[in-house]
Structure formats: structure tokens, C-alpha cells
Amino acid sequence: EIDVLDINDNPPSFPEPDLTVEISESATPGTRFPLESAFDPDVGTNSLRDYEITPNSYFSMDVQTQGDGNRFAELVLEKPLDREQQAVHRYVLTAVDGGGGGGGGEGGGGGGGGGLPPQQQRTGTALLTIRVLDSNDNVPAFDQPVYTVSLPENSPPGTLVIQLNATDPDEGQNGEVVYSFSSHISPRARELFGLSPRTGRLEVSGELDYEESPVYQVYVQAKDLGPNAVPAHCKVLVRVLDANDNAPEISFSTVKEAVSEGAAPGTVVALFSVTDRDSEENGQVQCELLGDVPFRLKSSFKNYYTIVTEAPLDREAGDSYTLTVVARDRGEPALSTSKSIQVQVSDVNDNAPRFSQPVYDVYVTENNVPGAYIYAVSATDRDEGANAQLAYSILECQIQGMSVFTYVSINSENGYLYALRSFDYEQLKDFSFQVEARDAGSPQALAGNATVNILIVDQNDNAPAIVAPLPGRNGTPAREVLPRSAEPGYLLTRVAAVDADDGENARLTYSIVRGNEMNLFRMDWRTGELRTARRVPAKRDPQRPYELVIEVRDHGQPPLSSTATLVVQLVDGAVEPQGGGGGGSGGSGEHQRPSRSGGGETSLDLTLILIIALGSVSFI
Fold this sequence. Notes:
By secondary structure, the protein is mostly beta strands.
């Protein structure tokens, strides 16, 4: 029988060159972790004897022997692991056999056989990687407990407020952080801000308004997804920067509906205040009063103003004013607002009535009906109400020794003038009086006057009156003598008439309407001169006179006329020249009749106007 003696010709070897062990970081010191055993095909003392590990402070090696003599190693944890400090530990694990310990293989030294020389010790190694498994032993941590952010108001939704970042050194779900609002956040802040759970992005989700709140506190928590997660907290202090987004506001507390036009300068008519919800210059307000008005602003306290009269008021120039106040802040760009009030100016009786003209010329046709309307005077008063309520009257005066009130009257309400009598142009051609308009103002009524000139207009109501030649004493026709030897153009007489009317109504025309046989006579229609047109016929019976009907007609509409009969008696006698002229056949051809009864009467003085009643006057 031959025994084959083992020699240490095989080193120990591990199943894998790389061994990996996973250990929770929560493992406590003293915990053992079995390792993969190495294999050595040698036997006896050449077989596997020990395990060694790279010296370190975390682990030690404990080699155990099984009942069959095989040895195995256990890794013993010497101190706590911290994955966050070191997630992987790498060591060299060495398996050592028993070579080099002297003696041969099994049975060496027995049976007379000679022993083997000592064998060299052999080792085998493997890379031991210890992976520290995470346990949720870390709380997420923010970079800082309080963040301060400034953000303009009116920032649109979606505007980034801040990118929050909380870190958790754990791994996996233990280190996966989610963000949320904590229970400390106010409901309003929750409405205005949005938070991304995964990214920690805090953004605007509502409408920020500095005037609502200049500061918002946003409380955020972060926690991992591991078991028994503990949240971490931070506070985001959002300071809202004011923007000039609010126009000033004007509030009137007192407004007088009316102010007297007699109010002294400085009289208060309104009180108002201004506010602006913005801050600093955006909230500083300046006020002005628009327009050219007799009012001004007066500042009493900060942002409190009064509107006062600046100059005396005149209701007649303006009975109401629209006062517009403009309030403008000092922002960029500036915002403004305006507000208007209506102020009425109450009347004071400071204006006397005024007639439409200072003098009225009123034309009234004579023979008017008593009580007839003749004119209407009109006055105005720039005041109002009772101060402008007018009453008309006529001021007392005398006309031809009688009171004016017997001639005319006036309606006190409307200024209508009425004639109280029938006027006669031939008796009264014109007269004047004064009318007054008086208001009903108080405490002192005011009055104004005007002059009324009544001009009587002539009416053709008088027929011409023939005043020469004169009729006989008993109303017999006037008589004139004509020499039979009178030459053509001989002036027999001059008919004279008067008319009490005026103008065309008194312009007279003379004519022969009957008795002018053979047109022996001619009459100047303007002067009334009656002359011979030819010689008296020789066969004319001298005892038979001419009876001429003379008519005097005016130019009125319609015309009036009067007639008179003139008896012309033929006589024999010498013809004497007139006015120093030549004889019957010389000079101008004008001849003067001889005097009646041997020269007892003289020629008629035509400048003497006698107004007489002629029995033969008729009206056509």
C-alpha cells in the first residue's frame, strides 16, 4: 500500500474574487456577518488554517472551526456604520493555509517513512466590498431656516418666488424629499403661492397686492419618503414691493349746495380728504382745482383740504360752478383721479332793473279809442326770484296842467301802456313822462327809470277852411268886381285857406269847380290867385255876374275839401296898374281892380289869417 503524501501545492481560493456584503447602517457593534469560505484542496496542515482582513477600525475577523474541522470566518462589526459618511468599505480578505508549519502530510513521521521538508505557506485573497445599507436616520435639511425674498406686487401667476432645496443624505426613498406647506401657513398665503412638491419651486399663484399686505410668511416643510419620516421646516418671508397701481381717492365730507354771491373771500364751500393706498412717493398726493374759477384750494392738515372762495362772486356772471378737483400722486408714471361738485351761487339783490332802452318814442295816431293799448315798455333785472320780480308804474307829472294819470296808464305786471283819452293832434302834439320798474328784492328794493315820449300822429280829420275872400255879413257869397276892360292875367283876388292838420294833410290845392264860363278865369292851384285868362266878351251882359265855385282840397288820405262861392260883378272903369306897374297894356299884364264904392275898402291883406266858419263850406 502506498500513501501519497500531500504537499502544499495549492493556495486557498475564494469562490469569487470579489465578495460583497451588505450591512445596514443601523447594525449595532458586535453584530456578526458570515463570509464566504475559501477552499484549499490541500489536506492536513496544508489546508486552510486562518482568515485575515485588512486592518481597519470598523470590522474584525473571527474564525470559527466547524465540527468537521473546516474553518469559516465571520465579520464582526466593531463600531456603528454611517452610510452618509461612508457608503462602501473595501478590504482585502486573505485566506491562509497551514503550509510552512513543518511536517509532512497525514501520517507523516509514521510507519518508518521519512518526513517531507517544510512547505511554503500559501494564501488566497478576495476583494471584500461592504456596502452600507441606508436606514432612514437623517432628516431633510434646508439651506437656511429663513429665506427673505422681495417681489413686486402685481407679479403675474407663475412668477418664481424662490427655488427651495432641502437635502437628505439618505438614499432611495429615505433621501427622496417632497415639499409641502406646513400647517402654520395662513389661508391667504396658501391662496397666493404655489409649491411644487417634487422640485420645491415656490411661485406666485394669486394676485399680490402691497396694499393688502406688504409681507407674507410662507411656511414650508420637507420630508423624505422613508419610514417614520420626520419633516424639516423653513420660513419664506416674502416682502411685496409697492408698485404705483392705486390712483388717489377723493372723499368729500362737506359740500355746501349754495353760496351767496355776497359771501366774503375765504368762505368755505367744501371739505374733502385724499388717500392713496400706495407707499412712499407712490402714495404722496398733490391736489389742484381745475379751471378759471373764483375758488381756490386751502390745505388744512395733511391730505385734508377746503375749497374756499377766492374773489367776490357774481351770480349774474355765473349762477353755478362745476368745481373739479384733481389728485395726482408722485409715482412713475403718476396716477391721478378727479372728482367734481356742483356749487350754486344764490342771489343777492345787487342789480337794479334796466329798461330795454332809456328813451321810448311812441307814436299814437290821434282820435284813438280811450283805453286803447299803445305800447309796451320792458325792463329786465339780472337778479333772480323776488329780486327780479318787477312792478311797473308811471311817475307823477303834469301835462297841460293835468295829471299824467288822466292821459295814460300802465299795467304793473307787464308794462303795457294804455291811452286814457282820445288824443287830438291839433290840441296836443306830444308829451313825455317817466316809467319806473321796481323789483321786490329785500332788504332794499331797487328801481330803474325810462322816459316815454308820446308823439301824436296827425290824422286827416280837418277839412280846409277858406278864410278869404270873406263872405257877406249875412252869409251871402263873397263878391269881387272885374273891369270889363281888364287884360288877360288880371289879378281878381287871392283865395286863402287854412287846414288845422299837418303835413300832407294840410297841403292844399286850389281849383274852380263850377261857373267858369268860356274858361274866362284861371286859378293858380298852389297860391290860390284868381286871374283872367282872356278879355271879357264884349257882348257879355254887365248885369249878369259870374258865379264861381272855388274848391280847396288837402292831400290827406282820404282827402278833404271845402268850397266857397265867389260872385264876380262886371264894372266899367279905368284899370290902374298894380305895384307901380304899367297901364292896362303895359307892364307884366297884371291889373288891379278899382275899389268898391269909390275906394272905401282896401285890398285884402293876405298875411292875415282869419279862421272863420263859412256857411258854404262843405266836405267832400
